[in-house]
Specification:
With 138 residues, the chain is mostly helical. It contains four helices and no strands. It starts with a helix and ends in a 13-residue tail after the last helix.
């Protein structure tokens, strides 16, 4: 009975792992395919600023330094956004490899659980062995 419960738990975990991998792949592929559209809008990065509700608590020097840093990274961000759609093919391979490694680890978990149940079952059914010495009454 414990073997069945252990393997049932492992199969449920594999199903959840597969669902998580599928959802991660779907969201990431959608994000990467949309990243190409963001590459043409260079003004989006420069339009970032400190929100109005946070501005009273942020020193003006920090806000200027943040804007300067963002404008310095604009070419790098645009280059990454242009290359992002080309990386979508590698994403599928990476997700499949990580999924396979995780599934293999879950199957190993199932084998370990089965071995643990076998050891525990073996301990509970072994009869007590006497020491073989004469009983002393006193």
């Amino acid at each position: 009975m414990f073997y069945a419960l252990g393997w049932f738990a492992v199969f449920i975990l594999i199903a959840l792992w597969s669902l998580g991998a599928w959802a991660f792949h779907a969201v990431t592929a959608w994000t990467i395919s949309s990243a190409g559209a963001l590459a043409g809008s260079s003004g989006a990065i420069e339009a970032l600023h400190v929100p109005d509700w946070l501005a009273p608590w942020v020193p003006e020097e920090f806000a200027l330094a943040l804007a300067s840093m963002l404008s310095a990274f604009t070419p790098v961000v645009e280059a990454v956004l242009e290359w992002a759609p080309a990386l979508a093919g590698g994403l599928s391979v990476a997700v499949w490899v990580v999924w396979a490694i995780g599934s293999a680890m879950l199957i190993v978990l199932g084998v370990v659980l089965s071995a643990m149940f076998a050891v525990l079952r073996g301990r509970s059914t072994t009869p007590a062995v006497s020491s073989g010495g004469p009983a002393v009454s006193g």
